[in-house]
Amino acid sequence: MSANLGKLEAALLAYVQMRNLRKVSTGDLRGPLQLSPKQESSLFDRMSRRKIIAQVRRGLYLVPSQLPLGGLWSPSEALAINTLMDDQKGRYQLGGPNAFHRYGFDQQLPVRLYVYNNRLYGDRVIGSVALTLIKVADERLGGTEKMTTPEGDVLLMASRARTLVDAVRDWSRFDSLPRGFDWIRGELAAGRVEVGELVGTVLQFGNQGTLRRIGALLDGLGVSELLLKKIERRLRSKKSQIPFVPGLASRGKLLRRWGVVFNEQA
Fold first, then answer.
1. Last residue of a domain, one of 73, 101, 131
2. Does residue 252 lie within any of the structural domains?
3. What does the angle CA 157 – CA 159 – CA 160 come to, to the nearest 5 degrees?
4. pLDDT one-digit tens code per residue, 170-188
5. How far apart (Å, rounded) are the C-alpha atoms in residues 141 and 143?
6. Is 180 part of any domain?
7. Residues 6+ apart with CB under 8 A from 235
8. Are 101 and 80 in contact (CB under 8 A)?
9. Cα 71 to chain center, whole Å?
10. Domain boundary at 21, 51, 73, which?
11. Is residue 128 a part of any domain in this protein?
12. Cα–Cα distance, 79 to 99 (Å, whole number)
């Protein structure tokens, strides 16, 4: 342990390590360390500020199994997000730039986790783990696969097909169009995603704009009429025209079947 630790800090770490605890809450230390509520609160605040422990929320803290040399510690990404979601009794999945990088769509390594979940929204930091929490309805969660970290922890990540759908649906959040259309073309051509799986995923998790844009894309790729009709039957209206690539001028061929102006630049 760091030589700069005070008596109470050292006692807290010795206590949690002896009992193999990964988290502590308000009230947990008052009896074992004979602390008043004010002393316990001050201890948590002091150790959190010094980056010896990590605050998940007020009253809940993650603690190291062993303090590294130098005395600074941060939880892993998996420990941080799984603890937060367990505390909130919520569901989650990683997506957006994290999934884009995992599947090789984008080479840029994200510096934060993008967390679709049914409890919280906004930015948050747990130790050195930066989170962007994207609150969605329960029915928007799903289409995931488990990812095991080197430490043996499990994270839920959007599947390849779900990631492609999110790239189209959440284009404004992730600036993912028109790149997302090229990702879809590439994944289908390489056989890494089956067209039936993509259609099933967009039917389950796409909104009207996503259905229309992916329908237009697949139509141009010569996908079977049976699959195209599955998408078409889910459209409520095609009277309004939307651009194939949002943000570009709506000039191009009108694909009447989808109500989409094909404005993709060569």
1. 73
2. no
3. 130
4. 999 999 999 999 999 999 9
5. 7
6. no
7. 208, 211, 212, 215, 258, 259
8. no
9. 29
10. 73
11. yes
12. 18
Count the Cβ atoms, other than its own, within 10 Å of residue 14: 13
Q: Which residues pair with 124 in a beta bridge?
A: 131
Regarding whether 85 and 52 lie in a shared domain, the answer is: no
Residues 126-169 have pLDDT tens digits of 999 999 999 999 999 999 999 999 888 999 999 999 999 999 99
Residue 90 lies in a domain: yes
Rounded to two decimals, what is the model's pTM? 0.93
Which tokens go with 205? 């998790």
83 shares its domain with 145: yes
Domain count, the chain: 2
Q: What is the 3-state secondary structure (H, E, C) of 139-164?
A: HHCCCEEEEECCCCCEEEEECHHHHH
Q: Return the CATH number at 31.
A: 1.10.10.10
Longest dimension (CA), the chain: 75
Same domain, 33 and 104: no
Residues recorded for the chain: 266
Cβ atoms 91, 53 nearer than 8 A: no
Helix 208-220, helix 179-190: angle, nearest 10 = 50
* Residue 209 CB contacts under 8 Å (≥ 6 apart), including other chains: 169, 242
CB of 132 closer than 8 Å to CB of 114 = yes
Residue 145 domain boundaries: 75-158
Q: Are residues 124 and 51 in the same domain?
A: no
Rounded to 5 degrees, what are φ and ψ at 238? Answer: -125, 15
H/E segment holding residue 167: helix 160-169
Confidence of residue 71 (pLDDT cuts 50, 70, 90): confident
* Token pair belonging to 210: 């996503």
* Residues 18 and 66 both lie in one domain: yes
Q: Are strands 129-135 and 113-117 parallel, antiparallel or unpaired?
A: parallel
